[in-house]
Structures are given as structure tokens and as C-alpha cells.
Design brief:
By secondary structure, the chain is α+β, with helices and mostly antiparallel strands. 35% of the residues lie in helices and 17% in strands. The strands form 2 sheets. A two-stranded antiparallel sheet has the order 1-2. A two-stranded antiparallel sheet has the order 3-4.
């Protein structure tokens, strides 16, 4: 390397290229605009139809319909991830919160929110798993 550096002459053109190894540094931030909720029953055709499919799939995994939910669910505009994917699920309960960010966060967040809304032992276990404190 030292020999190569000695051969360098100015002026020169240096071309930089990304390292071939996987880089996830830019994926560390998820911005959820809590001032921009949206309603899944209305909206643009393409992106919103995929959001409706994701929501229906999460409900189906639980064997529920939207009318059977005990938890309040609000959908928000988020980024910088893909528009058709859920990037994070924020669960707020009794003055505490948890953020889920895995690939199945919508279904997992819905399960957790429903357990918390239904109360009892399941709520206490869910709150403990999410590191929330539940007063019985």
C-alpha cells in the first residue's frame, strides 16, 4: 500500500465505489408522521390497495374482522421504507409504549394490542413481553 501511495501524482481522478458487503446503516431510522393518519377505506388505488391487503391479512391471521377489534388502530404515513410494506408498529398502552419493527410487525402488533385491550392474564403477559407495565 505504501508503495502505491508513493506512485500517486496530483492532479488525479479518484473513483469511489461502495463496499460489496451488506450495509444496513440507512435502514436504522423509521420516520412515522404521527400528524398524518390515513383511512384505509379511501385513498389512492395502487399503494392503498396493498395497505388494505396487508391489513386484511393481519386480521385474518388472528381470525378477526375489523368490527371485532377491541383495540383502537390508526394507520399513519411512514418512511423511508417501501410504501407497500409496514415499517413499524407503535403500541401505546397505559402511558407506556413499545415499537415493533420485524417483518411481521403488523400482525404481531395487532395481537399485542388485542391482548392488552382484552385485559386479564394475557394482557399482563403481553405487557411484560413488551416491557410495559400493566396495573390490574
Amino acid at each position: 500500500r505504501a508503495a502505491m501511495e508513493q506512485q500517486l501524482r496530483a492532479p488525479m481522478t479518484v473513483r469511489l465505489r461502495p463496499e460489496p458487503a451488506a450495509d444496513r446503516g440507512e435502514d436504522g431510522i423509521v420516520a412515522v408522521n404521527l400528524t398524518r393518519p390515513f383511512d384505509l377505506t379511501y385513498g389512492r388505488f395502487g399503494v392503498d390497495s396493498q395497505r388494505r391487503v396487508n391489513w386484511a391479512d393481519a386480521l385474518s391471521q388472528m381470525g378477526l374482522s375489523g368490527q371485532e377489534l377491541r383495540s383502537d388502530v390508526t394507520h399513519f404515513i411512514a418512511g423511508p421504507c417501501e410504501e407497500e410494506q409496514v415499517s413499524a408498529c407503535l403500541i401505546v398502552f397505559d402511558g407506556s409504549y413499545a415499537v415493533l419493527r420485524d417483518s411481521d410487525c403488523l400482525a404481531e402488533g395487532l395481537r399485542a394490542a388485542e391482548a392488552l385491550a382484552r385485559g386479564g392474564r394475557a394482557a399482563a403477559a403481553t405487557a411484560a413481553a413488551l416491557q410495559l407495565h400493566v396495573q390490574e
